[in-house]
Amino acid sequence: MSRGSIFEIPRGLHNCCQCEAYVRSRLGGKAQPSLLNLKQLSHLDLSNNDFGGVPIPSFIGSFKSLRYLNLSYAGFGGVIPHQLGNLSSLQYLDLIGYFEGLIPHQLGNLSSLRYLKLRGGFVENLQWLYGHSLLQHIDLSYVNLTRASDWLQVTNMLPSLVELSLSACSLDHFPALPAVNFTSLATLDLSFNYFQSFSIPDWLLIGLKGLDSLNLQFCGLHGPISSGVRNMTFLRNLILSYNLFNSTIPDWLYGFSHLEYLNLSFNDLQGVISSAIGNLTSLTTLTSHLIRTQLSGHFPDATRQLRQSKNLEALFLSSCFVFDHIPLALGELLTLQYLDISNNSLSGHIPMSLGRSSSLKYLYLSGNNLSGPVPETLGQLANLEVFSMCENSLQGVISEVHFANLTRLREFIGGFISHFLCYKMEQPKDLELLNLEGNLLSGEIPDCWMSWFGLEFLSLRNNNLTELTVMDFGENKFSGSIPAWIGERLVNLKILILRSNKFHSNIPKELCALFSLQILDLANNNLWGSIPKCLMNISAMGMKLD
What integer pLDDT is reported at residue 300 of this predicted model? Predict the structure, then answer.
C-alpha cells in the first residue's frame, strides 16, 4: 500500500476451500477512526465483510481525497450517515446493504459522482440528483420510491446516464414524459414494480430506440406484447417474464439480429415458436419456462433452425407443454451449455446426437415420457456437471462407457445405479447429490460407496427395487426417520442394516411387513419409543441365513 492510497479487501472466490477461508477471514467489529491517518486515501473497499449490522462510521466522510468507496455486502446497517456527502472527490459509491430510514439528501453534494448504487431505505424525492451531469450508472433497486413522484423527470435530465436500475422500488405507475432526453441510456431495469397501467408506455417505446438491455420482469403488464418494442432493434437483452402477456409470439421478434438473451417465461403466450427463430443468430440464451406455447410437432422445426446460432449457450423450455420426440438437431448446438426440456410430454428415445453437444454442463430431461436405453454417447459429455433424467420410463443397462468421461459430474438425478457407483472405485468422486427417484430401477444396490466421500443427498424413492434382498447402509451419517417405504416396497429383504447412523425416530411398524427378513440391525442410532410387537411375527429371523 503506497502512502495509504488504496485499501481493498480482495474478492473472487472460486471453490469451497476459498469460501471457507473467506468466511474465517472476514473483517468485523468496529471500524477505528485511526484509519483517518491515511490522509491521501483515494480507494476504500470494505465489501463482503461482516460488521454485524453496525452503522457506517461517520468519520468516513472525512476522507477528502476519496474517489472510490465500496461498502457493499459489508454487514453495515442502520441509517446512511449524511457525512458521506462531504466526499467531494468521490466518483464511485456502492452501498448495497441492509440500510433503513431516509437516504440523506447530502449525497447530492457529490458532484463528481459517476457510479451510484444504493439498497434499502427511502427517499422523499430525487431532487438531490439534479445537476449530476457526470453520473453514468444509477442503481437504486430496493430503495422505496413511493413518495418520489419525480423519479422519471429527474433521471430524464441526466445527460450522461447510461444505466438506470430501479428494480423493486414500489413504483406503481408510469408518469407522463412529454420530451425524452435519455440520449445516452443503454440499460433500463424496472423489474419487480407492479405498474397499474398494464402496458409499456409510449415514451419508452418511442424515445428509447437505442436501448441495449430492457428488463420489465414482474411488472404486471397485460395483453399482447406491444408492437412498439419492434423499434428497439439494438436490443441484446430482453426480459419480459412473469407478466400476463396473452398473445402469440410476434413475428417481428425474430428479426432482432443483435438479441443475445430472451426471457419470455411465466406468461400466457400461446401458439408456436416459429422456425424463424433461426434468424436470431446472436442468441446465447432462450428462456420460456411455463410459456404455455403449444409447440406440438413444431419443436423439431424450431430447434433445427437454431443451428444457425453459433453462440447459443442456454435453452430453457421447461414446462412448455411440448410433446413429440427430442429433436436430433439439439446435438448440433455445439456451444450449448444449459439444456432444460424437463416437465413436458416428450416421448421416444434420448437421441444419440446429444452426445455431440460437447459444451453441455447442465442437462435436464426429467418429467417426460422418455423410454428405451440411455445412449452411450452421453458418456462423451466431459463437461457435464448436472444430469437429471428422473420421472421417465427409461430402461436398459448402464455400462462403464456411460460414465467414462463424466469426471466433472456433481449431481446425477436419474436411474441405473450399479455401474455408476462402481466405476473407477479407486478414484475419489465429487458427486454431492444423487437422485434416482421415479425410475424403473431394479436389482441389487452394490457395495461401492467407499469412494463417494462428498455425497450429501441420496434418493431412491419410487422405483422397482422390490427384488432387493440385502440393504446395508450401516456406519454412515444418515439422519431423520427410518423410511417407512422400506417395509412397504422392499418386501423381499432378508438383511437390513442401518446401524451406526443418526436416525432419530421410532421404529416404523411398516418393517413388520418384511416377512423374509432374517437380520435387522438398527443399533447405535437415536431411536426412541417401543419396539413394534409385530416384529415378533417375522418368523424368518429365527432361520439360518441362506
Answer: 46
pLDDT of residue 14: 41
C-alpha–C-alpha distance, residues 57 and 231, integer Å: 48
Segments of the chain with pLDDT less than 70: 1-26, 28-29, 289-305, 307-309, 396-400, 413-467, 542-546
> How far apart are the C-alpha atoms of 332 and 302, rounded to whole Å?
13
**Class of residue 3 by CB neighbours under 10 A (exposed 0-12, middle 13-18, buried 19+):** exposed
Tell which residue, 516, 460, 452, has the closest CA to residue 483.
460
CATH topology of domain 468-546: 3.80.10
Q: Are 231 and 255 in contact (CB under 8 A)?
A: no
Q: How far apart are CA 505 and CA 151, in angstroms?
A: 58
- What's the CA angle centered on 195, arms 190 and 198, to 5 degrees? 115
For residue 379, give every residue at least 6 positions away whose Cβ sits within 8 Å of its Cβ, in sequence order, or none.
Answer: 355, 401, 402, 403, 404, 405, 406
Indicate the pTM of the whole model: 0.71
CA nearest 513: which of 491, 532, 529, 536?
Answer: 491
CA distance 281 to 279: 5
